[in-house]
Write a structure and sequence with these properties.
The protein is of the alpha/beta class. The chain has one domain (12-241): Phosphoenolpyruvate-binding domains (TIM Barrel), CATH 3.20.20.60. It is 42% helix and 13% strand. The chain contains eleven helices and eight strands. It has an eight-stranded parallel barrel, surrounded by seven helices. Helix 2 (33-42) packs across helix 4. The two termini are 35 Å apart.
Length: 272
């Protein structure tokens, strides 16, 4: 992107205002400077430094192993590549559940050391007091309901959530409690589309869906899923916009053949 191009920086108030204007919010994940800069140049509104990096970047089976220090490291790298988008960092497992004071300290580190502009927390009523304290301190908080990957063992996997009326009612209640506590936006993951609409209609803050149907105020995907780089999981709600895993393997195979045959480097690629 040209340095002379005017940039309208995305902020928390602007993300909230997008819902009021009926404008959809586009969000994707990043864990390094290069990918973050590409997403930012392409015009996404939110770059989420997701704890999904534990799986698609570091190779773990769940999001649970990633540490706060690792999340801060990834956030610093992403922040260097972003000029326009709002940078939101996932607070990892056990960085905010032990106490409100510890959550405040750790969220503050995400902003002070990582350069995040907001943090994301999973959970409903149980984190309301934590959200209220963070918001009162000036730390913007994005909520996350439905499938909450940090609770994968309690949930028994990555299945569809809030399928019955009782669970749906609880989710709507949690959403309203989080809004009252001060979250500026709410991720809804892997819930029925009609419930996504019900929650979106009930809140004045934006909802950002991931497998929550078309009625949310925005959508987020894990970039490695969307680009076809992470092939271990095939999720119904992921649309593949590219197949970079296939392309990268083909390119590397071509390179290897050229090296072994002596076709690379050529005279044009060599110095006299």
């Amino acid at each position: 992107m040209s340095t002379t191009t005017p940039i309208s920086k995305m902020t928390v108030p602007e993300i909230i205002a997008m819902k009021k204007r009926g404008e959809k919010i586009a969000a994707l994940t990043a864990y390094d400077c290069l990918l973050a800069s590409l997403l930012d140049d392409a015009g996404v509104d939110v770059v989420l430094v997701g704890d999904s990096g534990a799986m698609v970047f570091a190779g773990h089976e769940t999001t649970l192993p990633i540490t706060l220090d690792e999340m801060i490291y990834h956030t610093r790298a992403v922040r260097r590549g972003v000029r326009r988008a709002l940078v939101v960092t996932d607070m990892p497992f056990l960085s905010y559940q032990i106490s409100v004071e510890e959550a405040l300290r750790n969220a503050g580190r995400c902003l002070k050391e990582g350069g995040a502009e907001a943090v994301k927390l999973e959970g409903g009523e149980v984190i309301v007091e934590t959200v209220r304290r963070l918001a009162a301190t000036g730390i913007p908080v994005m909520g996350h309901l439905g499938l909450t990957p940090q609770s994968v063992h309690a949930l028994g996997g990555y299945g569809l959530q809030a399928k019955d009326n009782a669970a749906a009612t609880r989710l709507v209640k949690d959403a309203k409690l989080l809004e009252e506590a001060g979250v500026f936006a709410l991720v809804l993951e892997k819930i029925p589309a009609l419930l996504g609409k019900r929650v979106s209609d009930a809140l004045s803050i934006p909802t950002i869906g991931i497998g929550a149907g078309p009625h949310c105020d925005g959508q987020v995907l894990v970039t490695h899923d969307m680009l076809g780089l992470y092939e271990k999981m095939r999720l119904k709600f992921v649309r593949r916009y590219a197949h970079l895993g296939v392309d990268i393997r083909a390119a590397v195979e071509h390179f290897s053949r050229d090296v072994r045959s002596g076709a690379f480097p050529s005279a044009e690629e060599s110095y006299e």
